[in-house]
TrEMBL record, chain A:
Keywords for the protein's UniProt record, in alphabetical order: Cobalamin, Cobalt, Metal-binding, Methyltransferase, Transferase
Organism: Nocardioides cavernae
One function term, GO molecular function aspect: methionine synthase activity
Family: Belongs to the vitamin-B12 dependent methionine synthase family.
Superkingdom to which the source organism belongs: Bacteria
InterPro entries in the record: Dihydropteroate_synth-like_sf, Met_Synthase/Corrinoid, Pterin-binding_dom
Pfam families: Pterin_bind
Protein name in the entry: 5-methyltetrahydrofolate--homocysteine methyltransferase
NCBIfam families: PRK07535.1
TrEMBL record, chain B:
CDD domains named among the record's database cross-references: corrinoid_protein_B12-BD
Top-level class of the enzyme under EC nomenclature: transferase
PROSITE patterns noted in UniProt: B12_BINDING (PS51332), B12_BINDING_NTER (PS51337)
GO terms of biological process kind: homocysteine metabolic process; methylation; tetrahydrofolate metabolic process
EC number annotated for this UniProt entry: 2.1.1.13
Highest taxon above the source species: Bacteria
Domain spans labelled B12-binding: 91-221
Taxonomy of the source species: Bacteria, Bacillati, Actinomycetota, Actinomycetes, Propionibacteriales
Domain B12-binding N-terminal: 1-91
Keywords noted in UniProt: Cobalt, Metal-binding, Methyltransferase, Transferase
Pfam families, per the entry: B12-binding (PF02310), B12-binding_2 (PF02607)
TM annotation in the entry: none
Organism per entry: Nocardioides cavernae
Protein name per the record: 5-methyltetrahydrofolate--homocysteine methyltransferase
Amino acid sequence: MSAEPLQTVLRSATREVVIGHDRPFCLIGERINPTGRRIFQEQLREGDLSAIERDVKAQVEGGADVLDVNMGVPLTDEPELLAKAITMVQELTDLPICIDSSVVEALEAGLSAYRGRALVNSVTAEDDRLELILPLVKKYDAAIIALPNDHDEIPMEADKRVELTGKIVRVATQEYGIAQADIVIDPLAMPIGADTSTSLVTFEVMRRIRDDFGVNMTCGASNVSFGMPDRHTLNAAWLPMAMTSGLTSAIMDARTPKIVEAVKAADVFLGHDDWGMAWISAHRAKQAAADAP
Amino acid sequence: MTPEEILQALYDETLTGNAPRVLELTNEGLDLDMEPQTLLFDALIPSLEEVGARFERGDFFVPEMLIAGRAMAGAMERLRPLLAETGVETVGKFLMGTVKGDVHDIGKNLVNIMLEGAGFEVIDLGVQVAPEKFIEAIDLHQPDIVGFSAFLTTTMPMFKANMNALEKAGMRNDVIVMVGGAPVTQEYADAVGADGYAADASQTVKRAKALLDAKRSKVPA
């Protein structure tokens, strides 16, 4: 028997976003992240956060439901930077935020600056990480993204990822009193260019996690096309396949219409957009924009 | 096939990553009494160099690089013992690993392929390599260069931990240290006291050769 499908509720000060298996896919914009952006890194190091304004605007216009905020710049005060960035993003938009750092102090600083109910990105199945991060999640009443990998390499077998998901769910709910609905599992999407069978494993993991635990899932979806040509087309094909397998959200490129439209189209076919009303409204809005002088 | 045909076919099949055929051709070449170093330096290495050049230009993609590297690795497994017997010198010995706490290896593996393609002997310790593992391996293999790879801002501090371990073991002056990975910068490399940094795989090869030349010119022969 399948587990009951759960709903994860995120909030900003004024807006609520619900992630769930019978709802439209939740698009988490990935762009506010300095990794691989040399100029942005330089700016952040000098305390210049102005580029964030542009990133917020582009992603809100592109159709993001939530914005990921990562300030992982080496040789800076990441907690201070992340808190500042979160305050700034909340002044610019009412979308909820996914607070993204592997530095515990930065997560805490981000959570204390945030107004609303955040999504924390992320914890792994490693005991020391669970011990450090889950109390914060509980204290600030947030939801948490959890990766089913432990101290060894990223497990390539579906069994191991499902087993580690079970461990995370058990520890978070029983030892820290976190609701199962507030655990969002990242089934680990790896680049197809480095291993031809990797996506099939990830899809299997998604189906099993959905059926066994009913929890929501998200992942870094742009990663799947790393090292390949025409990445947008690959990303746009991969997301609907993942959605069919049980993925309910992704940290993704929300600025590229081709990718966002693929997700919205999949919502229609999966029965997550009743009578295609959202699809039709989006079409009208696009037409109106094109007709505008 | 003539030796010339074997070399040409070996070059072509490595370029397209046909591992079974590359191994067959290597064996055919050896059966014809071709020298292992001829197969290596006149076919395999030029082919991998071409793979790297195409990758750098954006004409080749990650999977093509990986299968070409795998094809060469298969041939090298056959050739390495023979090369050792004949005392052929490699360009240099490069010990590589992703630091402790980090499981990312795609970038590191691409760098390994480029290094092998440039004639380096590469010893890859894999991912999650603790400082004491690096020390052990340096002691065992006596590499010219050791490379630390990190993909996360949170695991980059392991560079410093590795450097401290080298100092403590009294090995700091025995090896050239290079660092790299997506979030790593020249400033960061300088801050941890590494000898070299490169932003991508092909620059790593150039930098490694330059560092090696500089070191060898300092040491009297």
